[in-house]
Amino acid sequence: MKKNMSIREMWHYIIFQTKGYRTIKAAIILGALTAAAVPYGNNLFYAGVLDCLVLAKYDTAVRIVVWMVIVTLVLKLAAKGCERIVNHYCKPCADEIKKRTAQKAFSMEYGMIDQKETLEAFRRVRAGEIGMGGVERQLLAIYAFFQELAGIILACGFVLVLFARTDRAKESMTVSLFLPALMILIFVLVMVLSNYFSQKEGAFRVETQLKNEQVNTLSAYLLNLINRETYVKDIRLFGLKDYLYKKTEGFRTVGRMYTECGCYSGKCQALPTFAAQMFAAVTYICIAAKAIAGSITIGEVTMYAGAVITMVAGVQRLLGKYQEINYMNEYLGTYEEFITRPNMHYDGTLPIEKRDDNEYLLELSHVSFRYPGTAQDILKDVSMTFRIGEKLALVGRNGAGKTTLIKLLCRLYEPTEGEIRLNGINIAKYDYEEYVRIFSVVFQDFHLYDFPLDENVASGEQVDGERLQRALKLAGIWERVQELPQKQRTLLGHENGQGVLLSGGEAQKVAIARALYKDAPFIILDEPTAALDPLAEAEIYENFNTLIQNKTAIYISHRMSSCKFCDRIVVLGDGRILEEGSHETLLANRGTYCELYSAQEAYYKK
To answer: In 3D, which of 403, 289, 300, 255 has the Cα closest to residue 43?
Structure first.
């Protein structure tokens, strides 16, 4: 469990989370003080009014009442105003946290995001937030904590004054020493018991939430299954309806868990509450004895009694709020740790030379790579050059390292050994944003977004109409786009409105169009025709040179027949380059490529 937050850490947490919203800090301080001062201010005025009434000073009592109304009104208005400010800014602060998290995700190492531990941490936070809220709720809880803390500090001042109001000539030893000592002793007991049982209650709540987290994760997943049209066919054809219904039965355990949590909470509060009542009884006896001895007035009896009892209740609320904050911090700490992680190791500054002739030479020099936290190299001492304007195919069995090599070229990963150079300079020295602009990539697991089709292709809201039309035509999807309800402005998907669903082949053509629209000097296609029918695939291959034009193309495929269109073929196996050459040369060598090609050729001849 995450370490408990100190008061200082809470304040630094507020400063960190509300960066850019200076008003909220002043509102928290002023709001805590004014909200806490209202009951104690009223007690002070009530005491004055009661004493005036006892002494028949009615004019003075009226003036005190007027001042009480004015002061109470000012304090309440200030407290309410500060509360509104805090509530108003907490939501934007929560949104700002999400924005900063996204910015951090874009600036940190891709390998860190891709790690199982990071993905699991975010899954836990998402599931945990369903049950305990997010940054917004935590900020409000800390604000409530500071309110209770301010109230206790004011109450301590009243208690100190009470103990100082001692007339030794009139008070007995019991009144002046024993009863105050007993009050202090019982108050310490209340503090100890409240803290002990609050910790036990908090630990039980975390345990309950950890159990509920699994239910939250499952419920979110099942809702996604039910609401996504992607899964409807399998659910119906494989008769999964009853199976999924049975999975939802686990949701019933949530009510039982929280009922048990409520019962346990009641048990934890019983003993501290009893001790608090004992403290109240001793307090009333002590105050009454002081009043009888003449150390305090009748009006001050109500003032001190109210202050002390309010303090005890405030202590219990404070400890409960403290446990709530740490309970939430168990999950939200994952976000904080993520945001404070270092950025990319190699965030270079050199600009990329703008060349109309696309004369960019890319080289791998003795490159090896292993994924973080593993001991096995995926790529082993790979050296190769991507010639300018060349159409190159990367082939090999699954796990040969083809996609990993592409991710290294795109700086999604950094080589474990060796270096990658662009025009003779290590790519780590280039400005990252400029470097990735020279690549247009279609990965096998590409994604389209539930935004208008033209924005998907242009990767933004600024769309060049002629350039869009050209890319869609080259990708062979222009005619289909003209059939859509709003043509190229048609919304895709259902998550952002009533859009249309493209078939797998159509979506893949749009992804190819997106790569062509970018018009980068390097085109990388990772299985770009996997979802296309044979005729569409043949059309893509026949127009391959037109699609690529004078750009350098890197093409990954498991279909050996598609490699005929490439100038050079590189065969990877076990992380190494096994052979390279043209289609005819590799067939004549009768090596791995010939074996793969012959196996597929035999399959198509059957």
So the answer is: 300
Query: What pLDDT does residue 339 have?
Result: 64
Dist. CA 137–CA 604, nearest whole Å: 61
CA–CA separation, 152 and 155 (whole Å): 5
Say how far apart CA 60 and CA 72 lie, in whole Å: 18
Q: Which domains are assigned to the chain?
A: 7-339 (1.20.1560.10), 352-438+521-536+549-606 (3.40.50.300), 446-519 (3.40.50.300)
User: In the predicted model, what is the mean pLDDT of residues 310-335?
Assistant: 71
- Nearest CA to 48 out of 67, 72, 34 is that of 67
pLDDT of residue 203: 73
For residues 198 and 327, give the distance between their C-alpha atoms in angstroms, rounded to a whole number.
Answer: 11
Residues recorded for the chain: 606
Percentage of the chain surpassing pLDDT 70? 75
Angle at 574 between CA 391 and CA 548, to 5 degrees: 15
Residue 12: C-alpha distances to residues 125, 141, 142, 179, 484 (Å): 21, 15, 11, 40, 53
Strand order, beta sheet including 522-526: 439-442, 522-526, 552-556, 391-395, 568-573, 576-581
Which residues fall within 8 angstroms of residue 212, CB to CB, at 6 or more apart?
131, 254, 257, 258
d(CA 9, CA 28): 15
Digit-coded pLDDT (tens) for 482-515: 998 898 899 888 777 778 888 878 888 898 889 8
Rounded to a whole number, what is the largest CA-CA distance in the chain? 119
* Rounded Cα distance, 185 and 194, in Å: 14
CB 235 within 8 A of CB 244: yes
In this predicted structure, the answer to whether residue 337 has a pLDDT above a threshold of 60 is yes
47 and 73 in contact (C-beta within 8 Å)?
A: no
pLDDT of the residue at 70: 92
Residue range 132-178, pLDDT digits in tens: 556 777 778 888 888 888 888 888 787 777 777 665 555 566 666 67
Helices (H) and strands (E) in the chain, counts: 22, 10
- DSSP per-residue string spanning 394-435: EE-STTSSHHHHHHHHTTSS--SEEEEEETTEEGGGB-HHHH
DSSP codes joined into one string, 50-90: HHHHHTT-HHHHHHHHHHHHHHHHHHHHHHHHHHHHHHHHH
Tokens coding 83 = 């509360």
